[in-house]
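Q: Okay, next protein. This is Large ribosomal subunit protein uL22 from Sulfuriroseicoccus oceanibius. I've checked the sequence twice, so it should be correct. Can you predict the 3D structure?
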Amino acid sequence: MEVKAVYKYARISPLKMRDVAREIQGLPVNQALDILNFTPRKAAVLVGKTLRSAIANAENNFDLDADTLVVKEAQINEGPRFKRFKPRARGGAAPIIKRTSHIRIVVSDEVEIPAPKAKSKGGSKPKAAKAAPTQETAAAEDNA
């Protein structure tokens, strides 16, 4: 079952929020909360509040166990912008746009938790193996 929580009109740019939201997608909620607790950004605090709200919704409204929940989706949408103006030289004005965000987090107990992938030590492309010299090529090199 999917359970969601929404935090609207967060006073932070969506660009800054999306960096943090990408980090927790697809993770179990315990691991996602650990990552958010140790991320020193304002966005991590706001996403953490919303994630804890989604967990509480799942436990209280739908009787789901928090240990089985996985962050299915962490979406950051753009909210309304506050438009302000700053006085500039010679009677001019420069616009200042203060952006807001809407945070939407969906947790689910139906998503499989992916197993960590084993990292290979090699490069991105496998190197072509050199062919062992045959008797004919070895004899040709000796004669030359």
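A: Here is a summary of the prediction. The CA atoms of residues 11 and 100 lie 5 Å apart. Strands lie at 2-10, 70-78, 82-87, 93-98, 101-108.
Q: Noted. On to the next one.
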